[in-house]
């Protein structure tokens, strides 16, 4: 059952969006730092991949996810689509979706996200590494057809593709951000939508 998250939850970083997220919402997040264990020690490192995504897509945000309620999320990671905790992004700048949605639509988003994440021991949808290259090129106006044909499949996804796919599946066409295919939606486009930009339908 979908229930609102009580209280006001947002990122705690500068410029954080304060929002009461509903299960079935999406959020875009700026991840400047990542933590790795090296020789048994937890070390803070700059998020180079995130920086490149922000630069190539002209956006403040490099990642996005679906909120599923009770502090839990579903997201596409390099290890594949999986469940995670919203607390992982504590301190990051977050922009929550603002598209008006119905209870039924949010339920559809949740169902699509759960299918993408899989049910253990079945793994979630694998990550689309080549899709990142295509999306970076497309922002600059170049969409090579040979690469597009590989991107336009639903057996591999990056974070923004997963969000757009779940929205499209639930009938929330706004989450397509004016694109014909969910697979060409970037974190930057979803962030612009959340900030109030109106894309042509």
How would you describe this structure to a colleague?
With about 200 residues, this protein is of the alpha+beta class. It has one domain (about 10-195). The protein is built from six helices and nine strands; from the N terminus they run E-E-E-E-E-H-E-E-E-E-H-H-H-H-H. It has helices at about 50-55, 105-115, 130-140, 145-150, 160-170, 185-195; strands spanning about 10, 20, 25-30, 35-40, 40-45, 65-70, 70-75, 80-85, 95. The strands form three sheets. A five-stranded antiparallel β-sheet has the order 8-7-6-3-9, with helices on one face. The chain has a two-stranded antiparallel sheet with strand order 1-2. It has a two-stranded antiparallel sheet with strand order 4-5. A hairpin with a 2-residue loop joins strand 7 (about 70-75) and strand 8. The longest helix is centred in the middle third of the chain and has 15 residues, at about 105-115. It is globular and about 50 Å long.
Quick take:
By secondary structure, the protein is α+β, with helices and mostly antiparallel strands. Helices cover 30% and strands 22% of the residues.
Describe the secondary structure blueprint for this structure:
Blueprint: E1 9-10, E2 18-19, E3 26-30, E4 33-38, E5 41-46, H1 48-56, E6 63-69, E7 72-77, E8 80-85, E9 93-96, H2 103-117, H3 129-139, H4 145-151, H5 159-169, H6 187-194
Antiparallel strand pairs: 1-2, 3-6, 3-9, 4-5, 6-7, 7-8
Helix pairs in contact: 2-5
